Amino acid sequence: MAERQSSAPGANSTYPASMPSIQVKDVPVEVHATLRRRAAVAGKSLQEYLLERFIEEATQPTLDELFANVDQRTSGDVSLEQAAALVRQDRDDR
Fold first, then answer.
1. CA–CA distance, 92 with 94 (Å, rounded to integer)
2. Which of 39, 40, 61, 82 is most buried per CB count within 10 Å?
3. How confident is the model at residue 5 (pLDDT cuts 50, 70, 90)?
């Protein structure tokens, strides 16, 4: 299988040529122009710039994902609500 090089941070240096693609339609002209300008300032093609942004977005958990992870933890004796109350109390005491 052929491989391609990627210069996007966070991406593997090479990846299979059969990687999935994303196509976004009906992008407003102003948004497209802004993204092209930002890519040019960063010294990247629009594709490279957007891939970098997608990777960054996908590697950062959302608040819902973080809260789901917290809810699944069972190693502590204090609930999230109790911990928040203790932190508030500590801050109020200062």
1. 6
2. 39
3. low
Identify the sign of the CA torsion 45, 48, 50, 52.
negative
The pTM (predicted TM-score) of the whole model is: 0.57
Q: Is 59 exposed, middle or buried (0-12, 13-18, 19+ CB in 10 A)?
A: exposed
Nearest to 51 by CA among 19, 74, 82: 19
Which pairing describes strands 3-5 and 14-16: parallel, antiparallel, or unpaired? antiparallel
Give 84's Cβ-side CA count (13 Å radius).
4
Local confidence band at 1 (pLDDT 50, 70, 90 cut-offs): very low
The per-residue pLDDT for range 10-53, each reduced to its tens digit, is 555 566 678 899 999 999 999 999 999 999 999 999 999 999 99
CA angle, 8 then 44 then 49, to 5°? 55
